[in-house]
Amino acid sequence: MNSNHKLATRLIHAGVAPDPLSGAIMTPIYQTSTYVQDAPGKHKGYEYARTQNPTRTALQQALASIENGKYALSFASGMAATDAVAKLLLPGDEVLVSDDLYGGTYRIFTKVFEPFGIKFRFVPMLEASGIRKHITERTKMIWVETPTNPLLNIIDIAAVAELAKQAKATLVVDNTFASPYLQNPLDLGADLVVHSATKYLAGHSDVVHGAIIMRDSALEERLRFIQNSCGAVPGPQDCFLVLRGIKTLHVRMRQHCENGAAIAHFLRAHPKVDRVLWCGFEDHPNHAIAALQMRGFGGMISFTLKGDKMEDALRVLSHTKLFSLAESLGGVESLIGHPASMTHASIPVEERAARGLSDSLIRLSVGIEDSGDLIDDLRQAIEG
User: Fold this and answer.
1) Cβ atoms of residues 211 and 30 within 8 Å
2) Which of 100, 174, 238, 377 is labelled catalytic?
3) Active-site position among 35, 46, 50, 222
4) I need a surface site. Which of 100, 132, 171, 238 has the fewest CB within 10 A?
5) Which residues pair with 196 in a beta bridge?
């Protein structure tokens, strides 16, 4: 696959070649646990399916291409990918983490890795210059989400990358909310890009998957060793589904962005709605940075109602008909969620409140249905 090809072409063709045996245009699902060798140590590049699988190889090549990386590793879930990255650290190391982030990431850092002597410091990153004061000689990694989950905060990746380089720290960017269609953190100086491929990459709410993409061969070697040793690998069927989903990422994301903009403006104009968090608004914090480092503003929106009453939020959450009340995001169907009790329940209530994540905040993953129908659904739920 020519790296000079435009993204839409790479999304469909990267990592994929007709099956040499049958000519099948779709990558086969290699449902096998082991591979026959011609002699001890003499094989066709595949030994055991925990280590490698041809379907996974095709997906990893595609992921590397669409994130403008050199290497990619596919995992059983986004959290498995996060776990592998955290295993690069040693007791005594410190990690600076954006203070608004997915609750599962907060949980694994504080409940799984902190007991091993790794310190995670959750700091505001809206002003990149303010991060410098938190860096110490023990800072080995900086972990960034942008846009963040669920407050849609925007962090200047290039500015943080410069700070990480000065500190000789690894910069990790969770690119799940933006997807490679809207943002490529490696181009902005990140060392590792992490995805919950369950979301926009797969795009159909039918698979759980994770990925790490990088350019550095030493990092790839360490992470590949960690994955093979610990075994958090995806099955070939899952790899096939993500590879299939990637082929339509560009057309899906265009519609997610178009629908997201329509719904964000509808909500902002509604008399019963208070705050609307969407990075496409010019007065959204760091909108100018989003406009520079992203190619669109996506379909993720959070909002609160006037009065900020929990019972009003619960009424909306339970009365939509097209927006399904469910965890996750990034599928073709629209979802509505309550971060405080769902995706971010593992974060203590006082910490959620300190970061502006109120118990009445509603999060939308805007799908690719007709935008007018989606607006009508929200209107009846808000006004009903």
Assistant:
1) no
2) 174
3) 50
4) 132
5) 210
Instruction: Identify the residue whose tokens are 């992490």.
Output: 194
pTM: 0.95
Instruction: Tally the C-alpha atoms within 13 A of residue 100's C-alpha that lie toward its C-beta.
Output: 21
Q: What DSSP assignment string belongs to 252-268?
A: HHHHHHHHHHHHHHHHH
Instruction: Report the pLDDT value the prediction gives residue 352, as an integer from 0 to 100.
Output: 73
Q: Tell me which CATH code domain 7-246 carries.
A: 3.40.640.10
In this prediction, residue 340 carries a pLDDT of 76
Domain boundaries, the chain: 7-246, 249-383
Residue 77 has pLDDT above 90, yes or no: yes
Residue 50 annotated among the catalytic residues of the structure:
yes
pLDDT tens digits for range 109-166: 999 999 999 999 999 999 999 999 999 999 999 999 999 999 999 999 999 999 999 9
pLDDT (tens digit, 9 = 90+) per residue, 198-246?
A: 999 999 999 999 999 999 999 999 999 999 999 999 999 999 999 999 9
| Beta-carbon count within 10 A of 17 CB | 11
What does each C-alpha distance from 9 to 66, 68, 185, 347 come to in angstroms? 10, 13, 20, 40
* Alpha carbons 110 and 115: distance in angstroms, whole number: 8
Q: How far apart are CA 239 and CA 207, in angstroms?
A: 9
Q: Is 102 a catalytic residue?
A: yes
Length of the chain: 384
Q: Which CATH architecture has domain 249-383?
A: Alpha-Beta Complex (3.90)
Compute the chain's Rg from CA coordinates: 21
For the question of residue 174 being annotated catalytic, the response is yes
- Express each pLDDT in 276-297 by its tens digit: 999 999 999 999 999 999 999 9
The pLDDT of residue 4 is 82
Given 102, 106, 181, 200, the catalytic residue: 102
User: Which helix (H) or strand (E) element contains residue 293?
Assistant: helix 287-293
181 is catalytic: no
Query: In the numeric block, which tokens belong to residue 163?
Result: 């700070």
Q: Are 300 and 366 a contacting pair, CB within 8 Å? A: yes
Can you list the alpha helix ranges (DSSP code H) found in 19-167? 54-66, 78-86, 103-107, 157-167
Interatomic CA distance for residues 368 and 384, integer angstroms: 24
